[in-house]
Design brief:
Helices cover 41% and strands 21% of the residues. A hairpin with a 2-residue loop joins β7 and β8. Bound molecules: phenylalanine. Phenylalanine binds next to β9 and β10.
């Protein structure tokens, strides 16, 4: 482009042309950076508008006035076009960004996982609440036991064949009294621990409040299949007083089991059995009269009248104190209540299984 604006008839149209050229250049700039380059070509130090201003020097005062005003008008118009293009580019950029970061508000949010109690924990809490309502205390004790509490105190002497009723995990270590350690194979040691503490607390007093306690917790045996886990759960029950009989055991257990399963539609059966620490001893079976488990006897507990030697080991006089004990499998009760047919599901930690109990 030459400089035909010096020919008077073309002046305005040249300035118009310049404005059109600036608008076209601005419009062609695809990015803010390129727009700034285009700006420099027109409004910069050696840009075309500046060049025109310099040209004024050669004009007369009168011409300077009119020509100067016209150039200035064009400059203002070019600046306006620049601002408009800047705004348009910024708006387009924003639009692009908004599209890229589009938020689909109809998608489900990312939620924080809500936990739930493990079904075994839920079963334990039910058991504690039900026995609590019958006046039973809840006790807790060590899972690493001594030979004495796991067996001897429970009238199950060393080398007695009844010890092999339980495939015990023995620990190659003795306590300070020379008693071998084991992972308790049942919760029965808690009978002794709790009753001893109770007897000690009321020693020397005329009367002793009855011992009424349950002790739920983990137990261990060398056993593993669909219905046995090397770690499982039991709840021990013990009621000792001056006149506690099998009749009380039956009433308490029936009350517990109907509350636990929330149904009267079941029967209880005591089947003669043997445990060194009870005499007589019985397995407790239950049978549902309705529902999916209807008609099958299911073993849920060992039980019996506490053996006089065990009463003695508790620090009590067997001529005065008598009572019953039971030990029930919590996992079995939970399986029956929740309709789970493989015990291992409780301990696999699979959320697809566990989240069903929330
Ligand atoms: N401890 C016994 C077992 O684990 C169950 C039991 C407890 C039996 C209390 C009688 C009395 O098999």
């Amino acid at each position: 482009m030459g400089r035909p604006f010096l020919i008077p008839e073309f002046r305005m149209s040249d300035l118009d042309a310049l404005l059109e050229a600036a608008k076209a250049d601005f419009a062609a700039a695809p990015t803010p950076a390129e727009l700034e380059n285009a700006k420099a070509r027109f409004l910069g130090k050696s840009g075309r508008v500046t060049e025109l201003m310099k040209g004024l020097a050669a004009l007369s005062i009168e011409e300077k006035k009119t020509r100067g005003a016209e150039i200035n008008q064009t400059k203002v118009a070019i600046e306006a076009a620049l601002t408009a293009r800047r705004d348009a580019l910024a708006a387009a950029e924003l639009e692009k960004q908004l599209k890229a970061e589009a938020l689909d508000v109809t998608l489900p949010g990312r939620q924080r996982g809500t936990g739930g109690l493990h079904p075994i924990t839920r079963a334990m809490e039910r058991i504690e609440a039900i026995f609590g309502s019958m006046g039973f205390d809840v006790a807790d004790g060590p899972e690493i036991e001594t030979d004495w509490f796991s067996f001897s105190a429970l009238n199950n002497p060393e080398n007695h064949p009844a010890r092999s009723m339980q495939d015990t995990f023995y620990v190659d270590m003795k306590d300070e009294n020379g008693s071998w350690l084991n992972l308790r194979p049942h919760t029965s040691p808690m009978q002794i621990r709790y009753a001893q503490a109770h007897a000690k607390r009321y020693a020397g007093q005329e009367t002793m409040p009855e011992i009424r306690v349950i002790a739920p917790g983990r137990t261990y045996r060398v056993d593993s299949d669909a219905t046995h886990s090397p770690m499982f759960h039991q709840v021990e029950g013990l009621w000792v007083g001056e006149n506690i009989s099998f009749k009380d055991l039956k009433a308490v257990y029936l009350n517990f089991i109907t509350a636990f399963f929330e149904t009267d539609q079941l029967q209880l059966r005591f089947r003669p059995s043997y445990f060194p620490f009870t005499e007589p001893s019985a397995e407790i079976d239950i049978m549902f009269e309705s529902g999916p488990l209807k008609g099958r006897w299911l073993e849920v507990s060992g039980s019996g009248q506490v053996h006089p030697q065990v009463i003695r080991n508790m620090g009590l006089d067997p001529e005065r104190y008598i009572g019953f004990a039971f030990g029930s499998g919590i996992d079995r009760l939970a399986m029956l209540r929740y309709g789970v047919n493989d015990l291992r599901a409780f301990f696999d930690g699979d959320l697809r299984f566990l989240s069903q109990f929330k």
